[in-house]
Amino acid sequence: MNMQNLLAQAQRVQREISKKKEAIDNTTFEGKSEWVTVTVNGKKELLDIKITYANSIEDDDKEALEDMIKIAINKANAEVDKKVDAEMGAYGNLGGLF
Predict the structure, then answer these.
(1) Fewer CB within 10 Å, N or C, the chain?
(2) What is the largest CA-CA distance in the chain?
(3) CATH number for domain 3-90, candidates 3.90.45.10, 2.130.10.10, 3.30.1310.10, 3.10.270.10
């Protein structure tokens, strides 16, 4: 394989990676816990929080609610990571491009 063919192939792979990363970035992911649902995008930016706890929240429940929010956000971010692994794993690490 000559150098021009190798360069052209690398450029094609780079375009594929960029397209897939953009698609992931524009996808929304949801994480749920018992009291909270959060939505993040593929960049792991928090887009929405819904507190699904039906009763009024008392001071004693504040710490539990904060923990539930953390759990939900972490679950949503784990979904992003799974999607990135599934879509981008075929390309290997490629020097930490994603």
Answers:
(1) N
(2) 70
(3) 3.30.1310.10
Closest CA to 67 of 36, 28, 98, 25: 36
pTM above 0.70, yes or no: no
d(CA 76, CA 82): 10
Counting Cα atoms < 13 Å in the Cβ hemisphere of 2 gives: 1
Distance CA 70, CA 40 (A): 13
Q: Check if the beta carbon of residue 38 is closer than 8 Å to that of residue 70.
A: no
Q: How many Cβ atoms from other residues are within 10 Å of residue 97's Cβ?
A: 12
Q: Can you give the residue ranges of every domain in the chain? A: 3-90
Question: Measured between alpha carbons, how far is 31 from 24 in angstroms, rounded to an integer?
Answer: 16
Residue-wise pLDDT for 7-33, tens only, equals 999 999 999 999 999 999 999 999 998
| C-alpha span between 29 and 2 (Å, rounded) | 43
